Amino acid sequence: MPFMSSKPRSFLASPEGLQKLEAAKAELNLSFAAIAKLAGVSADTVSRLFHPERSKQVSEASLTAIAQILAVIPEDIVTAEKMSQKDGLAEAKRRIQEAIKSKATELSLSDLELTSVPKELYQLNQLIQLDLSQNQLTSVPPKNSGSPTTSHTFPSPKINSPRFPKNSGS
Asked: 92 and 136: one domain?
């Protein structure tokens, strides 16, 4: 059953969905390159779907094509389409913690129904690009909202959000 939407959407695999993807890939004995060729997408697109921890989403069309090759149902492998603000905040904090651990320079917190930016974001000193699109941001925590015993600066990242100032610095 295809997704119904009036605007293009992108998706990440859920933890359960990732297990289904891995099982189908193993059962069919296919590499990312083979899946990509059969689905008509790039190997990078397949890799992004299999690595949601990188927070790089795949388009609905790519998701559907990959799912068809692996004989899985698209809705069974992606995170819930509409999450609550509480769930979105928890997911944002999880992604931020992953980015801290991996020292990521890019982070997507798009489409999480956020109304504010989690203060944990300011722990990402190496962040260069931040995607906050498709949220309902109404506030951003002050830079000094971190621990009083540590000093964190927040570089002025490239921010991809029509509702968010281009430069959060100063």
From this structure: yes
Number of domains composing the chain: 2
Q: What would the two tokens of residue 18 be?
A: 């990732």
Residue 39 has pLDDT above 80, yes or no: yes
pLDDT given at position 157: 44
How many other C-beta atoms lie within 10 A of the C-beta of residue 66? 28
In angstroms, the CA 170 to CA 166 distance is 12
Q: Report which of 133, 127, 132 is spatially closest to residue 106, judged by C-alpha positions.
A: 127
Distance, CA of 29 to CA of 51 (rounded, Å): 18
Helix runs in 12-147, H state only: 15-28, 32-39, 43-50, 60-70, 85-102
The verdict on residue 82 lying in a domain is no
Structure tokens at 20: 């289904």
Q: Give rounded-to-5 percent helix, strand, coil for the chain.
A: 45, 10, 50
Mean pLDDT over the full length of the chain: 75
Residue 93's domain comprises 88-142+153-160
Among positive and negative, which fits the CA dihedral 26, 30, 32, 37? negative
